[in-house]
Amino acid sequence: xxxxxxxxxxxxxxxxxxxxxxxxxxxxxxxxxxxxxxxxxxxxxxxxxxxxxxxxxxxxxxxxxxxxxxxxxxxxxxxxxxxxxxxxxxxxxxxxxxxxxxxxxxxxxxxxxxxxxxxxxxxxxxxxxxxxxxxxxxxxxxxxxxxxxxxxxxxxxxxxxxxxxxxxxxxxxxxxxxxxxxxxxxxxxxxxxxxxxxxxxxxxx
Amino acid sequence: xxxxxxxxxxxxxxxxxxxxxxxxxxxxxxxxxxxxxxxxxxxxxxxxxxxxxxxxxxxxxxxxxxxxxxxxxxxxxxxxxxxxxxxxxxxxxxxxxxxxxxxxxxxxxxxxxxxxxxxxxxxxxxxxxxxxxxxxxxxxxxxxxxxxxxxxxxxxxxxxxxxxxxxxxxxxxxxxxxxxxxxxxxxxxxxxxxxxxxxxxxxxx
Amino acid sequence: xxxxxxxxxxxxxxxxxxxxxxxxxxxxxxxxxxxxxxxxxxxxxxxxxxxxxxxxxxxxxxxxxxxxxxxxxxxxxxxxxxxxxxxxxxxxxxxxxxxxxxxxxxxxxxxxxxxxxxxxxxxxxxxxxxxxxxxxxxxxxxxxxxxxxxxxxxxxxxxxxxxxxxxxxxxxxxxxxxxxxxxxxxxxxxxxxxxxxxxxxxxxx
Amino acid sequence: xxxxxxxxxxxxxxxxxxxxxxxxxxxxxxxxxxxxxxxxxxxxxxxxxxxxxxxxxxxxxxxxxxxxxxxxxxxxxxxxxxxxxxxxxxxxxxxxxxxxxxxxxxxxxxxxxxxxxxxxxxxxxxxxxxxxxxxxxxxxxxxxxxxxxxxxxxxxxxxxxxxxxxxxxxxxxxxxxxxxxxxxxxxxxxxxxxxxxxxxxxxxx
Amino acid sequence: xxxxxxxxxxxxxxxxxxxxxxxxxxxxxxxxxxxxxxxxxxxxxxxxxxxxxxxxxxxxxxxxxxxxxxxxxxxxxxxxxxxxxxxxxxxxxxxxxxxxxxxxxxxxxxxxxxxxxxxxxxxxxxxxxxxxxxxxxxxxxxxxxxxxxxxxxxxxxxxxxxxxxxxxxxxxxxxxxxxxxxxxxxxxxxxxxxxxxxxxxxxxx
Amino acid sequence: xxxxxxxxxxxxxxxxxxxxxxxxxxxxxxxxxxxxxxxxxxxxxxxxxxxxxxxxxxxxxxxxxxxxxxxxxxxxxxxxxxxxxxxxxxxxxxxxxxxxxxxxxxxxxxxxxxxxxxxxxxxxxxxxxxxxxxxxxxxxxxxxxxxxxxxxxxxxxxxxxxxxxxxxxxxxxxxxxxxxxxxxxxxxxxxxxxxxxxxxxxxxx
Lengths: 205, 205, 205, 205, 205, 205
What we know:
Six copies of one chain form a homohexamer.
Chain A: E1 2-7, H1 12-25, E2 31-36, H2 47-60, E3 69-72, H3 80-86, E4 91-93, H4 94-105, E5 109-113, H5 119-129, E6 135-140, H6 155-170, E7 174-177, H7 186-193, E8 197-198
């Protein structure tokens, strides 16, 4: 199988993080191609950034029909509806996929994302997908997307605090990490908190 | 009061139709400026067109802060969330406004729009706004946006047929016309069918 | 345009407050007539008062057909369904209208009303109108309607405290004042809290 | 036990029908007192009649505290909220009670009522009570309340036709008769259609 | 009338508690037969116990057709759907019946049950019955079913604490006791807290 | 990866159909073990059969902890909650998984199942999972489970007719086959109708 992953922001290091996470869970026979959008915002936080990254996303998907499926590597599922109008191949958003996966392993899950301004778009997606009744809360860690990668950042610690709150206040049985840039925190946080902490590129144990 | 209307597609004749409709209901002291997007799709039918018209819409709104409010003249409320991130002024979508107005004058209303491919986006907006319980149906007349203006088009007759169905099958008490290009049909159809047929630029009698 | 406002309680000073608020936002060409119900409760707080004020309301609306539209100046939308059966003219409740207006300018809004016993009727209206998903909370300030006008009352301070709670706990982006008698607090509270605090007779800036 | 039944319209023959139905299902030790409202509409069809019958209803309930419970014998549950504010005794509406009873014996039920103009109030009550997901349809037989008692009326036949539709189109597993005046049709219709046809004063077999 | 009560767990003392409670509210002419399941779990706390008690429940109901109705005396309504497939007689679950009864006497009610692991099944039932909008909270007292009967247990005190929370935090207007084994606490708790505390075998005053 | 599939009915030929379907989509490195329940109903159609197959299902899962995950091969997700209480390993129901998968590739999907008596359980599951808003209809083909395998059966033709209805009346964009025994019809029906027809053991193209 041949999968195209497109990062709709223009930050290549984030594409690399996602690509590595995807490879680590793919079976041997799956080929993964990861592309970065060539124009548009460097990170996507809220509706404004989303709107401006769709044309770059669609441009990056120009050869999508050569693949068995495409994955949009932005937790807001930026441009998902537009991309689906652009190709007959299945297109999956990582937010949408994570919500469905969490629903299969937990009665209710909470989301921990970056900035508060991303929360309405995530809640709105949950309603659209039909899964808001499964979500026990959407929490902001107040870390900007690009700070997730900054050396010396306390990002993981702050995300961990929100997970703690989600377990005790929301009674969450699983956590969905609400940003593609958090892909490499999942395993450690899952281990630390004793419940599944997931993105679609993580193995749930 | 000073209102900016932006047509997010690039078809100037549609801007003129909307502008005339707006002036006909505005009070004497209200100034209306109507602008047309300079790049992007010539009409907006479904998610793909929507995505590609937002950058042109935002560009056309560059002086929005000089106005008391802005109106996006596309029934899909294209770019509404992004535009609201762009300015402190109130921004209103004509779809959203029409749904709220219809809710004030009718127990339930049906929508008659252009092509079937626009239906999911409209239904999704109704859910997002909280008003799907007020909507008794979203019907497609299967007339393309640009055919609404074509001389000799049977557009009005086909819309009228769908209104008939909406009244008898959906038990609609009001009709919302689901495309800015239908603005000048509202009065005649309202008269013909004996229930309010409205857009936000029509006087409901 | 010719608008009839009816206060369904028998307290004339409250009619005057509402009338002044309405005139301050109406355009020059709009004529406003404000009438007070001649029999029934002096204030409307909960279902019992509501039921007993409808006959007086309908009596006060006996000439409603001479007007372009009527407004029922009670936040509970007392008698709205009955009034709509009584006339072909549009009849608008100030509660209903405020909920729709707040939905156009905010992702979610909270309501601050008078006594706790009014809360169920307001929540029930939100459900009926389809807008409960847009409302982040209905809060009681525990001030009786008639105390809103009492000289030396701390009404505004207590309403302000609830607004503070609504902003921080509910994450409200706008506040709807839940009693016609609060009409003249809106502007000051909006200024103080930095988010729109509204009734239908206020200009949102 | 000592139960007060109040008919909120002024038609005594309807009170008698309801009283007989109630006695036929009450246990030997239950005393039933049935009163008729002394002023207000002769029948209640829609919101306008409802509003004008509440004062008469409350007047008729002046001794409600001498009873163990009160029943409002109007399917619209006219004045139920107001009556509950008036007394500490339990007050039950026959519409509400029938919806709950039907939910205990059927996966989904349909309602067959009198005129179309009563439908919105019934649907609205179902939403308020939380039971709309249990209701497969609200159907109007287009028989006025007072025609239910008219000798030679084809009322039962027309109700029967709607029950037939409800079984085949709505897949209703039980029928709720939507008017107190239909109390004495329940047994025959239940027998004829082979599914429970009920009001709260009928024995479901 | 002839009613069969079946306790789907194998603990006879619990059947006796329920039987006594049922008799205390039944009219003189009602005969009550209470049976205990002969095989399966000794108490039912969560989905696993539920699944294993259904065969014993159905076996205990082998003569159900000799009765006018059957009651399943487990708050989770264990095996209710299966029992309804087994007989034409009405079968009522005590959880379901209590939710409907509470809805008739209170705008919103909270449930106080035994262990946290029973909460999801109760919430799920509320959704299925359509009544989640009427429920203001499901609270666990963290007392195991069999400890309810243990001499010297502080069960009633801990349930009382949760009722206190439900009144103040959930704004519950009535409490539903979420385990058949709590049947004999209802009257005292209702008296203590001043709001109805109920199961279907209690008289609400 | 090591996956356990358990058929909760006792019909071995159905286990073989499911096992073959599963192997055809599994990657080379995935080991599949398929077991048949040793006691309980021969097929599962509705709530009664479900209840009696759970003990056999749990017995068949006695070694579940040796596997990476378990799949319950019954479209009703029989015993899913109980099985999840029985093990720490992920347990997936094929109904639940198919609903989530269909949601990822279609705006709305319809289900085509066997007998009408299975419909309520399927609708109830959709509500529980949160996905009823994604489902455009649950249709019965009126073919009993065991007739699916009978030589000369017109099962596929009758399912195909319902798919036709689902496409035209429900506007379904994908079809979920509502019985494990239909596993080998998926590819042909998908090809014939031109939209995805799926179970979790089919490759969607």
